[in-house]
Amino acid sequence: MALLFQPYQSQLRDKNGKKLYYPRVVRTGTVTTDQIAKEIAGYSSLSTGDVKNTIDNLVTVLTNHLQSSEYVTLDGLGTFRMKMRSAGKGVATPDDVSAAQATLTVSFRPSSTKNPDRTVATRSMVTGVKCVRFDRADASDADGDNAVDPTI
Question: What's the rounded Cα separation, in Å, for the pair 80 and 71?
């Protein structure tokens, strides 16, 4: 397996007036909860229905904690939290501040590990990923045979 990417041109110009190119992930599809449940059931002694029910309950419990202003940390996965983003309309006094001035979003930060010297070593789910340029990929690249390690 490899992460596919393609070049895209920025709309912003650099200091020399040029629009530069950068890599962007190519999304090849969407995986549903049912598909994830089937795959997890294959790794465990649980049925697909049991796993699907557990995932559904996880979403319900996670939502309840997030809506109670709590962070939710799932070991090996990451931390979820609610975030308010200002809609751009400030008010003159603290008493006039209201939730209507912002939109709510859920923020996710993948788990990370720390070296003994306290520097961040890796991010969960990113470690070991191999990247392949989409327009130059062939069938063997899908397995990561000709993949590029973005960490080098």
Answer: 6
Q: Token digits for 69?
A: 């202003």
3-state helix/strand/coil string of 109-150: EECEEECCCCCEEEECCCCCCCEEEHHHCCHHHHHCCCCECC
pTM for the model: 0.69
- CB under 8 Å to 38, separation ≥6 — which residues? 48, 51
Q: What is the pLDDT of residues 103-116, one digit of tens each?
A: 899 999 888 776 66
Question: For the chain, which residues make up each domain, given as ranges?
Answer: 1-30+128-152
Residue 115 dihedral angles phi and psi, to the nearest 5°: -75, 165
Rounded to whole angstroms, how far apart are CA atoms 122 and 63? 27
Phi and psi at residue 141, to the nearest 5°: -70, -25
